[in-house]
Backbone:
């Protein structure tokens, strides 16, 4: 077992949350998997918007709540974005997701991953967002040590 790492920060606007996502996105090499949970309106999709931009995608990022999955192109890579909110069964998306996780260079982000937990690799990043106040969010990341490179910019930056 590798060491469990944490990174915690408070943001005071959606712009800040997006910028933090962008700093992490810039560090992605492909192959990373994120699981996101929060109160409703916590800022998960806002975070993914920055993440996708940092990863190099100019595609529009919207909430996949009703479509369940979306994908954003970034050069030869793809960022897959799922939202299983209120879904009790992932159906065929279960196998689809497993394939996308195995796809070289892909990044996978899952909001409300409970129904696909068994597909997620052991080495992945968890993000919990707490709504502290109207515009204040507490972002808490948990991940194994080999993924520390993703947080290198965020830890040293004052740019968000
Ligand atoms: P989720 O995907 O978790 O349901 P969204 O990203 O769709 O959340 O929505 C977050 C909402 O909260 C947006 O309306 C955004 O403007 C607002 N908001 C206010 N403050 C923040 C903040 N610090 N970080 C992220 N979003 C914030
Ligand atoms: Mg959302």
Residues:
């Amino acid at each position: 077992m590798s060491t469990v790492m944490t990174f915690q920060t408070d943001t005071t606007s959606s712009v800040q949350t997006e910028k933090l996502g962008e700093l992490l996105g810039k560090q992605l090499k492909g192959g990373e998997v994120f699981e996101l949970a929060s109160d409703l309106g916590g800022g998960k999709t806002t975070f993914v918007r920055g993440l996708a931009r940092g990863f190099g995608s100019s595609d529009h990022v919207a909430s996949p709540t009703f479509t369940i999955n979306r994908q954003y192109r970034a050069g030869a890579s793809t960022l897959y974005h799922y939202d299983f909110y209120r879904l009790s069964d992932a159906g065929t998306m279960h196998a689809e997701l497993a394939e996308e996780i195995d796809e070289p260079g892909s990044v996978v982000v899952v909001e409300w991953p409970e129904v696909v937990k068994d597909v997620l690799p052991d080495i992945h990043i968890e993000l919990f967002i707490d709504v502290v106040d109207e515009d204040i969010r507490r972002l808490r990341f948990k991940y194994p040590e080999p993924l520390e490179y993703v947080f290198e910019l965020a830890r040293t930056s004052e740019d968000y």
